[in-house]
Amino acid sequence: MTNSGEPLHRTFVFDLDGVVYLSGEVVPGAGTTLTRLRDAGHQILFATNNSSRALASVEASIAQKTGFVPEPGSVITSGMAAANLLRGHDERCLVLGSTELEDTLRESGLEVTDDPVEATVLVVGLDRRLSYERLTSAVLAVNGGARFVATNTDPTFPTPQGKHPGGGAIVAAVERATGTSPIVCGKPFPPMRRMIESKIENEDVWMIGDRPDTDLALARAAGWKKVLVLTGVTGDGDPIPADLQPDHTIASIADLPALVARQSAVVGR
Ligand SMILES: [Mg+2]
Description:
Helix content is 35%, strand content 20%.
């Protein structure tokens, strides 16, 4: 209970890949955890650096996999953060990324072009259509003066098979070829952080993630509690930089309600 006798309501910000699901498979207990926390009055937000899918398909994926239906406006992707950053400017975007990232940009009123000469900004994310030709267009755009925006710089993402190359690996190719560094939109960088902060309703915020350099770094920058799960890219005993040490490490999202209950007991609320 708070001083006023009301239960303390927290905001939980969940990463998706490696936390709620791993590739196509739900992490066991994810749906139960999300439902229990929402039923207890807590706010649930989702923040993913995966820019390859549009908002509607991410929302549908959470609901299908976990049975938990996210509140409207509670899911933020790094593609949305990029669109939000560029919105309102008269930009023509060359996209080295998915068709759903192109849709995300178009829905924000931005123009998408295939022409590196015409492009005013290059937006790079995970591109499963990657080819030498597409990479060349991207490099020509930046060398021709287009701004270089990356949805995220995650080097990998977790799959049951092991780590697959992430958007950051493609960003690195453009960076190497152009000698230009991108503006990065996803966790832990300000465009994504500002979008999340604009939705937070409670003072006590917990970030639940599997990746120290994005999830825990965002939480550190924003002053939130850092909770690491071991279902994604970080394994038990993997080294974590001293400044990104989690406040709590749990085996999986299934253990979160018990952790929340223990913390509530510790602080008397
Ligand atoms: Mg993750």
